[in-house]
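Researcher: I'd like a structural prediction for the single chain below. Treat it as a standalone chain; there are no partners to consider.
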Amino acid sequence: MGSLWRFRALCGALAMVSICASAAANGSFPAEFAHLLPPQLDEIGEITLTGGGGPRGGGLLLVKCTGEGGAFTTIQSAIDAAVDGNLIAVFPNDCTEDGRWHENIDFLGKAIVLKSAGLLDPTVTGETIIDGDAAGPVVRFVNGESSFSVMDGFTITNGQSVDTQIGGGVRCVDSAPSIRRCVFRENVAYRGGGIGVRGGGTIMIDSCRFMGNVATGDGIDGSAAYFEYPGSPILFDCEFEQHGDVVVGINRFTQEFLDCSGIGGCGLVISCEFRNNNAATLFRGNGATLVGCTFAENSGVCAQGARIEIRDSRFEANTGGASIVSSTFSVIIERSDFIGNVDVRRVVGSSPLISTFDIRGCRFIDNQADYLLEFSGGGSIEDTEFLDNVTDQYAVRSISGEFAMDRCRFERNRVIESLNSIILALVSSDRLGLIRNSQFLNNSPGPISGSCVGITGPAYMDSCLFVGNIHDGFGTPFSTQDGVVTNCTIVGNRTVFGASGLDAAEVTNCVVYGNRSIHPTSPRPQVIADSLSYSVVEDATGGVGVSNADPRFVDFGHWDDMGTPADASDDVFVSGDYHLLAGSPCIDRGDPEFAAAPGATDLDGKARVQGCRVDIGAYEFEQVGSVVGDVNRDGFVDLDDVPAFFETTLHPQGVGICEADVNEDGLVDGRDIGAFVVLQLAG
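Model: Treating it as a single chain, here is the predicted structure.
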C-alpha cells in the first residue's frame, strides 16, 4: 500500500483525522465548561504503512473483510490484538449483502481508538455499520475504560439487551469512554436503548445522532440514552429524533442530585437538538445543565428534573405534555426562547417543593397554554419578554412566597377564561411582591373579572408602564388592595366595572390619565386608593400634591374607534411616547420626602431622581447642571434669572423648579422670593 497516514488532534488543523476525545467534532466546546472535560489523548504522530504487513506490527491496525494486506477480518480480532495506544481503522464491510459488520464487540479495558476509516481517508466512502443482530449490546465498555478508549464514526444498530440490562447500542458499566460522531439507530434495551451507562465518572458523547431507539422497561428513562449515578455525562452537539418514553435520562433517582453540585456537576448537555420525538419526556436530568440546546416539533415534556438549569436554549413548536419545562426542586432558565408551543398545561412550572425559580433574559412568544409560568414558594423574573401569548388561566401565577419581577415586558397577551389575570401573585403576609421597571401594553385579561396584574398580600410596584390594556369585566390594569404603587404611568386602558386605571392601598408619584370606563350607567374613577398623593390623575379633585393637569407627554397616543364611533366597547388605544416634555407638571413634582433606593432607576434605566425632587411617572426628565437660583439655566445667577424666577413661582411646573426653590424647602412659592432677593444681592 505504501501509504503515509498523518493524524492530528482535532484541536489541531484537520477534523477528518481527529482523535481528540475532549474537543468537539462539529463545533467549539464552551470554554467555561472546559474544566469538566475528561483528559485529552496525546497527539498521534505519523504512522507509515509499507508493503502488506504493516498493520499488525505498528501503531495502526486495519480491519477489512477481505483481509487485504494482512488486515484483520473482524473488529473484535483487531481489538484482541491491540495494545494501549493503538489506532484501529475499520473499513466498510464489502463482503456482506447489507454492507454491515455483524458483531458484538468488547473494548476489553484497552486505551485504544476505534475509528471508521472514512474519517481517516477521504477516498473511503459509505457508512461503517456495526449490527448487533439483537444478540446483546453492539459495543461493551465494562472493564474500566477511560476517555482514552475512543469509538469514532460508526453507525450502531440492532443491539438488544435482555431482561433488565442497560444499553442496547452501547453498554458502559463503571467505564467512561469517549464516543464521537456515531449514529445510534433502532437499538433496544430495558433502559438506554442507544446508550446505557452506570457509574464510571465523566463520559463524553460528542456529535452523535440518535434515531428510533427503544427502552422497554418502566418507561421513565432513556430510550436514546440513560445515565445512572454516579456519573456526570457530557453530551455535546448531539441529535435525538423519533423516540418515545423518556428520551434522555440522567440521574434517575431524585435524591442523587444532592450528591453532586455546581453547574454541570450532575451532567452537561450542550448544543444538542431534540426534534420530532413523540415522548413522555424528552430530557430528564436531576441536577443537570442544558446549554445552547434546541427542542423543536416534539410532543411531550421537553425538560424535567428535580434541579435543572437551562441556558441559551430554544423551545419551539412543541405540543402536549404537562409542561415544556418542569422541576420539583429548583429551576433556573437564562437567555432562552419559548416560541409557538401549543396545547400544554404550563410552559414552565414547578411543584410545591420548589426552592428556586429564576427566569432571566428569556422570551415567551406566541405560546398557547393554561399557564406560561406557574410556581410556588417564591420566584424571580428579570429582563424577560412575554409577547402574543394566549393562556386559558394566567400568563404568570405565583402561589405563596416572595415574588419579584424586574425589567419585563408584557405585550398583546390574552387570557381566555373569565376570572383570570395576566399576572396573579398570591403573597403571604410575611413576604413581599415586587414589580418594577416593567411594561404592560395592550394585554387582555379574562373577560369577566381579571386584572393585568393582580397581587393579593403586601406588594410594591415601582416605575412601571400600563398602556392600552383591555378589561371587559370587573378588572383593573393593576390591583393590589394591600400594596403601594409609586412612579408608574397608567394611560389609555379600558374597563367596564373596575377602576379604569389603578386600585391600590397607597398611590404616590403616579400618572393615571386618559383611561376609559365604559360602564353603561356609572363610569368608574381613574384611581381607587386609600391614600393618593403627589400624582397627576385626570379626574382628581384634591389630595396632597395631586393635580389633574395635562401630564404633557412627548406623544399621548390616541383611541381608535375601529370604524364604530358610537360603540366604545371595541375601541383600542394606540400607544404613544410617555417621556415628559420640558414643561410637564410631572417634573420635580413628586413627593419631596421621597428618597430613591441605592441604584434605583426609571423605566429607561436612568437614575431615578434627576432634579431636586423625583418626577411623577415612569420616566424621569433628564436634567444636567441644576444650580439654585439659575432659573434660566444660562450658567449664571444674575438679574437675567428674575423673569424666569417669577414665572416659575406663579406656575411651578416643568424644568426650573429646582432652581426656583431657593430656600430648598421642597416647594416653589412666595417664601422663595426673599431668599432669591438675598441671593441676587450677594452677587
